[in-house]
Amino acid sequence: MPEWTRDTPWRQGHLLTADSAKALGIDAKDSLVVVISHDCDLATLPEDGEPCVEVLIGRSLSQANENYTYGKHARVLHTNFSDLSEHIMGEFAAGNRASILKVALAEHQPDEKRRFTPEELARFQMWLAARYRRASFPDPFRERLKKVSKKIEVILQRGKGYIVGLYFNLDSNREIIRTAPEDVYRLDIFVIYNSDASSKGR
Q: Closest Cα to residue 41, out of 52, 29, 57?
């Protein structure tokens, strides 16, 4: 039986093949199982405190929803795997995780047909990290935001292909107590756009 070593071929962002996922007890139709453990944790031996590999379980898609690409949504991501011979789109929910024993995964090899490009992996890593470092808005502000959310969605839809991210910075990340409904907030809005798309006249 193969042993898990520091020279493991597994890296963060690698996909399991369908056969490997099924053999390891993950048997969902059209499932995509991607390793999310950090490379340093993958290199740590089971007996040294890292006995498991954390994975994220998603599904394949025929087409992406722009609202879920580029990490726009904190809980759902639509992303490409376009580095190798088979190019696919996947959907992942941040909470749909599982742990696989390293001694079990050692018997399997990463998918050799489907993989992130370096750019896709970087966006995937940023989305994973954002779950723990994203902003937390007070309820009164969230209620105000709901009143204009439809207008924001229309703007984002019009900017499809150009706008890849919209970020809010509330009160310069300071916690300010407000007591009256008419109290104002300081809101900085950052729009991230795809310069390649604009240069091509899209």
A: 52
Beta strands in the chain (DSSP E): 31-35, 52-61, 76-81, 88-101, 163-170, 187-193
Same domain, residue pair 32 and 127: yes
How wide is the angle at C-alpha 188 spanned by C-alphas 184 and 190, nearest 5°? 150
The domain of 97 spans: 18-133
Are residues 89 and 160 located together in one domain of the fold? no
Q: Which of 158, 77, 152 is nearest to 120 (CA)?
A: 77
The answer to whether the beta carbons of residues 82 and 118 sit under 8 Å apart is no
pTM here is 0.74
Where residue 80 sits, what CATH number does that domain have?
2.30.30
pLDDT 10s digits, 59-110: 999 999 988 998 888 899 999 999 999 999 999 999 999 999 999 999 999 9
Tens of pLDDT, residue by residue over 20-52, are 999 999 976 778 999 999 999 999 999 999 999
128 and 143 together in one domain: no
